[in-house]
Amino acid sequence: MKIIFIALTLALIAAYAPAPVMASEPQITVYAKNFAFTPGTITLKVHQRAKLVFVSKQGTHGITIPDIGLNNIVNIGNKPTSVEVTPQRTGSFIARCAVYCGIGHGTMLLKVNVIK
């Protein structure tokens, strides 16, 4: 009888205990439009994998950020494009649109801060 009581008690504890919190990678969505990224600045943590989701609200754009490990051009269209990055060093980095999008193309910047 004691064994059944203990088993039932443990089952109740397990059923009502809070689920363990799983560490998940941060996800940041960046929107592109002529001639800006929104938000204009993102912050990542060094040695922590992050998912970047790029979506264009206007036109076709691209981005490459070699300083954080995003070495290939990500084509940004109207469907979300996700990439995972793991920055290896701290600092502030500037990314530019990698696909010519018009006269304001040269001013289309995304600042990436990588912190500890």
Which features does this protein show?
mainly beta, four-stranded mixed beta sheet, 116 residues, single chain, Immunoglobulin-like
Strands of the largest sheet, in order across it? Answer: 2-1-4-7
Q: Tell me what portion of residues adopts beta-strand conformation.
A: 35-45%
Radius of gyration: 22 Å
Main sheet characteristics: 4 strands, mixed
N-C termini distance: 55 Å
Instruction: Count up the helices.
Output: 1
Q: Which series of helices and strands comes N to C? A: HEEEEEEEEE
Q: What can you see in these coordinates?
A:
With 116 residues, the chain is mostly beta strands. The chain has one domain (25-115): Immunoglobulin-like. 13% of the residues lie in helices and 45% in strands. The chain has one helix and nine strands. A four-stranded mixed sheet has the order 2-1-4-7, with no helix packed on it. The protein has a three-stranded mixed sheet with strand order 3-9-8, with no helix packed on it. Strand 5 and strand 6 form a beta hairpin. The N and C termini lie far apart (55 Å). Residues 5-12 and 17-22 have low confidence and may be disordered.
Topology (elements, then pairings):
Elements: H1 2-16, E1 27-33, E2 36-38, E3 41-45, E4 50-56, E5 61-65, E6 70-76, E7 81-85, E8 91-96, E9 109-115
Parallel strand pairs: 1-4, 3-9
Antiparallel strand pairs: 1-2, 4-7, 5-6, 8-9
